[in-house]
């Protein structure tokens, strides 16, 4: 079991700051994203509408990155400036 932090519009879509995710670790970020999208359709919609960013231990990572037990994982939409 791991907790995934949600930020900005993802937090609003799900209605909570963290998700408790039951997934076997280690796993790739891609598998984690798919697992969460299967359980939370609002995140699946967000993923299909924008490039979802994932940070592991406060570093942006790609889909191939391995998530290990004890890692801090956060999902957030791309940041735009003005």
From TrEMBL:
Highest taxon listed in the record's lineage: Bacteria
One Pfam family, short name: ThiS
Lineage of producing organism: Bacteria, Pseudomonadati, Pseudomonadota, Gammaproteobacteria, Alteromonadales
Keyword Transmembrane helix: no
Database matches in Gene3D superfamilies: 3.10.20.30
Entry keywords, A to Z: Nucleotide-binding
Organism (species): Neiella holothuriorum
Family from the record: Belongs to the MoaD family.
Stated name of the protein: Molybdopterin synthase sulfur carrier subunit
